[in-house]
Amino acid sequence: MFELWSQFPNIAAQLKEVHTLMQERLTMKSGPLQAILDELLATRGKLLRPGLFLLFSNLNTSSSLKANNESEIKIAASLELLYMATLVHDEIIDDSPLRRGKQTVQSKYGKDIAVYTGDLLFTVMFDLVVEAFNGTPYVQRNVKVMRELLIGELDQMTHRYNLNVTVDDYLFNAQHKTAALFQLACEEGAYLAGLNETQIYDASQVGRYMGIAFQIYDDILDYTSSEEVLNKPVLEDLSQGVYTLPLLLARQEHKSLFDPYLLKKDQLTEQEAQEVNRYVLKYEGVKKAQQVAEHYTQKALDHLHQLPDTPTRQGIESIILLLLERKQ
């Protein structure tokens, strides 16, 4: 879990505290419910969003506005809980059997339990936000971001199996369902670091563009990696009628090749999905998507370079560049 953060010992130590706090807040009297929550915590990922928040909160350690460690840990935990809740609900919508190589809540316990588990995570998340941010604009800011996440997911659902979906539609969804939470993490960190209004804006834009690039790379991996590496089914989006950037860019000048497959909708076979995959690679959908991701990565770096030039800023840059190399 902390491999990504090995170059930042202080952040890694704080992330251990974040995980401990999440365990405490997700301790329930019900044995069966506790088992579900324990399984969720055991499938934790890179803690990317809370880690980014903690990095940004250290951009100006001399600030009098610097939060105490307890508040920082609560905010970091709230970010991860919000992310976890959206994942649980995503898995219901996508009918996903696996997440990080393990059975999902909806697959193991059913959709009803999964819905309420995700809702429970939202309530614990807001408890932490209120405790840490009461009296600041960031309680309402979290509400706004949660709304953005829901709008992004709902908009993506309305475009399922839609052959008229555009690159702009894709980028809208990426901004709302993925980048909004990155943006919140970086913005909240900059706020607690005591940066000025312009710098807080730049930090939020770092998160925004980083999040868009992150989503594009995630969608590229669906066409270039394996189920063993990803720990989830490959081409899952395609089979669910979610047409991501590599497919959209490859299809632009070759609709006559792609559309007979896409018109099959949920009747598309695994073999046919693999044929679509080969067309995406042949017509440079992945290469073109990588170029778009690099464009947004550069925009993130441009805004980052407006922030105080400190070792922490250099660390943030290294994390952003790691996105170009990730394999899962």
From TrEMBL:
Gene Ontology MF term list: metal ion binding; prenyltransferase activity
CDD domains for the chain: Trans_IPPS_HT
Protein keywords: Magnesium, Metal-binding, Transferase
SUPFAM superfamilies named among the record's database cross-references: Terpenoid synthases (SSF48576)
UniProt superkingdom: Bacteria
InterPro entries in UniProt: Isoprenoid_synthase_dom_sf, Polyprenyl_synt, Polyprenyl_synt_CS
Requisite cofactors: Mg(2+)
GO biological process, one term: isoprenoid biosynthetic process
Coiled-coil intervals: none
Family named by the database record: Belongs to the FPP/GGPP synthase family.
Protein name per Swiss-Prot or TrEMBL: Farnesyl pyrophosphate synthetase
